[in-house]
Amino acid sequence: MRVSQFFLSTLKESPADAEVISHQLMLRAGMIRRLAAGLYTWMPMGLRTLRKVENIIREEMNKSGAIEVLMPSIQPAELWQESERWDQYGPELLRIHDRHDREFCYGPTHEEVITDFVRKEIRSYKQLPINFYQIQTKFRDEIRPRFGVMRAREFSMKDAYSFHLNKECLERTYQVMFTTYQNIFTRLGLEFRAVEADTGSIGGNASHEFHVLAESGEDAIAFSNQSDYAANVELAPVYKPHNTTDTQSQANLEKIATPDQHSIEDVCNFLKIKADQVIKTLVVKGSSSPLVALVVRGDHELNAVKAQKLPDVADPIEFASEKEIQEELGCKPGSIGPLKLNCPVLIDHAATALKDFVCGANEDGFHMKGANWQRDFENFDETTSVDIRKIVEGDPSPDGKGTVQIKRGIEVGHIFQLGDKYSQALKASVLGDDSKEQILTMGCYGIGVTRVVAAAIEQNFDEYGIIWPQAIAPFEISLIPINMKKSTQVQKACERLYEEIKQKAIEILFDDRDLRVGLLFKDHELIGIPHRIVVSDRGLDNGMIEYKGRTDKEAQQISIDNIVDFVEEKIKNSKSN
Ligand code: ATP
Ligand code: MG
Asked: Which residue puts its alpha carbon closest to atom 28 of ligand 1?
């Protein structure tokens, strides 16, 4: 492609409203433009990458045996009423009326439509299992659309839905999809992790999220340094240590004045102790008592998702106000401690293992020192020790292998064993081999296609711009002439190289604009094209062409006779990496 026949529209400055790097670079590189909140036009440059992502996904889905369909984006309300999601889904569902005042929605997902299709089309168990997928536009009226196409309102998703006679069959397809997703993200050239996700009411190992690792990711992922174990930090359990340290008291319990010392940091500085010798007591609403105290070690953080699953804690979790604490417990939140506290107390395993610790004295301006559970806390037993803290780096991996490391990730895919939630509601059944009607079992599998493009950038960029993995770069190589308008030698060499490289089925972008070479370099680096060759009079006089990979420190001089083979080899190598 010649730039003069393409549409290139780069920006020098990043627009002020773009907070994350992928959004800034997608705007600057001329990949997308905003139409309204959460709505974006894909420009020619961006579309080339988006299509490549789609093609890889499509090829791998086809390979897995899934069959492509295309469903309407507008869906009738009746189907959503049948599944009872019309009322449950809330304001993310964009509801619309047609000219006859019939209700519809713009599809945020397609479980209802595919289940309706399958109940009408599939009659016999002999047609199962079957897995349908589509790559299609969704609309979700997100409360805070942000980060460009990362959390948009209109976005492209690959969604697949599989149908089975029983759970065992679903599990086999789920495993095939798991492997297919690994193949897809590997081919896209991204560093990713499959992460155990919240299975809600379904239970078991029934859901995995796929995350692209990037520092800017919204989710923290805990994974083992020695096994495949990976889970969202919100979910990762921290088991009770096997050999808890000896918790026999040594020091005497003492009340000490700690005037104006409220936070853990204040108290530690004041008493010259470390945060792991103090406990933090947080007060939340209870399910069967007005308040419940949750205790974690001073250096640990409460995991609200885990805490709210405890039967004694109100769900959703709600912190008690200063006023409620004052009224019920008789002091300010900064002085609360578990000893002789007038409400139920739940203690994290790591805090349970402490001895001679410091805690609030339930009296403003005072703390207790030398506290010990067995001796000083009357209700101490097995049931008061619970798992309510966030897992941290260095904790033992929950699967028992290795220790935990933490990285941030962007969710780009989600696979889920649905069971019969939708097939039951919509009465999707087939005749089994015993000639009886049997309700189908379902799985669903999503990939945020447009989000993948942004996530790839969040993982691969530098101060000059995007660094595309070869497989999804909009072009594979740039051809940049120096002073082509004046030099017929440069012009001829460029034309010849352009044709020869194109002949090799390599996607080349020939920048034939009459601009200063510095500006051309900047644009191509910003756009992130993985390879670049530069043709100049000086090089040609010596029979040389300059080559530079996007992340190479130095350019190399390659003889003009070898340059085509050289770049072909380079591109082949970066594809297989
Ligand atoms: P999130 O927690 O990010 O809101 P979700 O759980 O709502 O995601 P799913 O319903 O599982 O997402 O959708 C499948 C995939 O679609 C997600 O893994 C994500 O990659 C993508 N996706 C979801 N919402 C958006 C959005 N607003 N913009 C772009 N992609 C999205
Ligand atoms: Mg969502």
From this structure: 151
Ramachandran angles phi, psi of 363, nearest 5° = -150, 125
Beta-sheet strand order (sheet of 366-371): 254-257, 366-371, 357-360
CA distance 333 to 259: 14
Q: Residue whose CA is closest, atom 11 of ligand 1? A: 414
Output phi, psi for 172, to 5 deg. -65, -45
The ligand minimizing its distance to the Cα of 451 is 1
Q: In the block, which residue shows the tokens 């009340």?
A: 255
**Average pLDDT along the chain, 577 residues, taken 10 residues at a time:** 96 90 97 97 98 98 98 98 94 97 98 98 95 98 95 98 96 97 98 82 71 93 91 90 67 91 91 94 94 96 93 93 93 91 93 93 93 87 90 94 95 95 96 92 97 98 97 98 95 97 97 95 98 97 97 97 96 80
In this structure, the chain runs to a length of 577
Going from the Cα of 412 to the center of ligand 1, the distance in angstroms, rounded, reads: 7
Position in ligand 1 atom list of the atom nearest CA 209: 18
Pocket of ligand 1 (CB under 6 A): 109, 140, 142, 151-152, 155, 157, 411-414, 446, 448, 450-451
Atom of ligand 1 nearest to the CA of 140: 27
* pTM (predicted TM-score): 0.87
What pairs with residue 39 in β-bridges?
A: 36
Cβ-contact 71, 138 below 8 angstroms: no
Which residues are registered as beta bridge partners of 409? 213, 219
Q: For helices 44-63 and 167-187, what crossing angle results, to 10°?
A: 140
Q: Which ligand is nearest to the CA of 153?
A: 1
The residue with tokens 């080899």 is: 569
